[in-house]
Amino acid sequence: MLSMLIFVCFALTTAKEISTPEYSFIVRQNATLDCSSLGSAKFYQGGKLITSETFPNVQIIDENKLFFNNLTLEQISSNYRCINEESKNYILFNKHPVILIESSHSMQKLVDGMFEIKVKVFNVENNCSWIQFKNNSIVNITQTDTITIEKHSMSIRNLKQDSAGNYGCLIFNNYGLFVGYSVVEVKSVASTLWLFLVVSIQVFLCCVAIFAYEKFSIKKKDDNQYNLSQQHFFKGRMASA
Description:
The protein is α+β, with helices and mostly antiparallel strands. It is about 30% helix and about 35% strand. The protein has 3 helices and 16 strands. It has a 5-stranded mixed β-sheet. Strands 3-2-6-7 form a 4-stranded antiparallel β-sheet, with no helix packed on it. A hairpin with a 3-residue loop joins strand 4 (about 60) and strand 5 (about 65-70). It is elongated. Residues about 1-15 have low confidence and may be disordered.
């Protein structure tokens, strides 16, 4: 019994946390947790052993890599640990930012209008660095009279034609860099009003044509009735004669 306690104490004191390799977790995408530096390893979500049976979208590769197919929000909000049962060395995967886009992935807005991009970020305290992809380059966005930047949201008022583009929230920690973005297309108010005017004219012309057709049909019907009554009148006079 004493020897068992000594062995357990020895194992606990020699257990060593190995540095976490680079990885990324993003909802609805794939990810791999690589524990090959431990040799063979078992994976745990909290205190629960991970197997292909208990996690349908998980595959264990070469006894030391954990592959996720189509990550769920619950999975990316959890922490993971892999451990070599012989050496007791382990790796923790517990610092992964998750970005969810709340606003539409593609937005169409009018000139002089306004749009807002919001994201939710889990497991990281950093704020977004807002950027715009323009002319094959990245432009950092700062707050101005028309641009409002908060921790995880950005809004632009008084849109112009050159406001169109890809806008993104860039966030990172020691384990990777992540960008959630939305595509903004800006329409001209003049072109929109011109389209409305064209449609209105077409509707008006259709109404005029229908009205004219109805008037012509009524007049023709009245003329036919008049001619028919005249024929009856002459036939009546000839018969009486």
